[in-house]
Amino acid sequence: MANVTNKRPLSPHLQIYKPIPTMVMSILHRVTGGALYFGTLLVAWWLIAASSGATYFEWVSWFMGTLLGRLILFGYTWALVHHMLGGLRHLLWDMGYGFEKSFSTKLAKANLIGSILLTVVIWIVGYTVRF
Questions:
Q1: Which of 24, 46, 108, 116 has its CA 20 to 30 A from that of 93?
Q2: Which residues line the annotated binding site?
């Protein structure tokens, strides 16, 4: 709606803001936190299958071994690692460090890069130990 009175500024909206790394990481921290709730359902499903008997457990293991299952588990791993690193970043801020704009931006970028690299390392180690 147009500002017909010209006495007050229009409220800013998403087209006004330029996404910056700290803003994007803040949003991703919230998204990964929400995704962890669904990942907890995966863990509960696996535990229920393990306690229900070999047949059901084998079916759940088969599903998690499919391409879709592995993509879900990979995404869950990334969400877990990303949220953990974001939590460490927030802990650093809670202690009063890292508020400088350049350092905060570097930390946000490191959070994304670190979460991707750690997820890949976890999966490589998991496959190496598995065989």
A1: 116
A2: 83
Q: Distance of CA 94 to CAs 10, 24, 27, 130, Å? A: 34, 19, 18, 39
Contact 114, 31 (CB under 8 A): no
Residue 24 to residue 18: CA distance in whole angstroms: 10
DSSP state of 3: -
Q: Which residues are annotated as a binding site for heme?
A: 83
Q: What does the alpha-carbon distance between residue 104 and residue 87 come to, in Å, rounded to a whole number?
A: 14
C-alpha dihedral (105, 106, 110, 113), degrees to nearest 10: 80
Instruction: Note the pLDDT tens digit of each residue in 93-106.
Output: 999 998 899 999 99
Q: Are 32 and 86 in contact (CB under 8 A)?
A: yes
Cα separation, 33 vs 83, in Å, equals: 6
For residue range 29-63, list pLDDT tens digits in order: 999 999 999 999 999 999 999 999 999 999 999 99
Please name each of the domains of the chain with its CATH number: 21-130 (1.20.1300.10)
